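Researcher: Here's the sequence for the chain we discussed earlier.
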Amino acid sequence: MKIYTKKGDTGETSLIGGVRVKKSNVRIHAYGTVDELNSVVGLVRDSITNKETIDQLLEIQDRLFVIGSQLASAPGSKMKLPDISSSDIQNLETYIDKMNDALPELTSFILPGGDLSVSYSHLARTVCRRAERWVIEVDEVEKVDPVIIEYLNRLSDYFFMLGRKISLDNNANEIIWKPRID
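Model: Thanks. This is the structure I predict for it:
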C-alpha cells in the first residue's frame, strides 16, 4: 500500500463516512490541531523519565486519537468509533489534584520555561488551547460531544500543572512574571 493516494491533490480530503470537504474546513483544522497536540505530547513524554507520568501521557495520547477520530467523522456517519467519557475527565482531574498537592501555592503568573521538558509541557498546553478553540468553532456549526470540549479544557490545565511539577522535580526555577508598569 502506498502512503500517497493523490486524492488530496485538489485541496480536498475525506471524512470518516466518505464525505469530501476542503482541507481548509474547520473540522480539518480541529482534528489537525488535535493531531499536532498528540505529537507535542510525544515530545513531553520523550523528555521525561517519571514512569507514572509517562503512563498518563500514553493514556492522553490514546484519548487524543479518540477525539481526532470523532472529529474526523462526518456528521451522521454510522461507523462505530471509540468514545471519550466523563471518566476520562475525572482521570485528568485526579492527576491535576495530585500534582497540585505536591506544589507550592502559585501567587503570580509564571513565564513558560526553565527546563526543556517544562517548555514542552507549556507548548502542549498552548496547542491544546488552540485545539479547544477549533473544536468550539466546529461546535458552532455542527454539534460536538460536549465531553470533547471539557476534556480539552481540562487537558490544558493538566499540562500547566505538569509543567510546574516537572519544574519542581527537576529543580528548575519558575520565573515569576513581573510586569513593567510605567
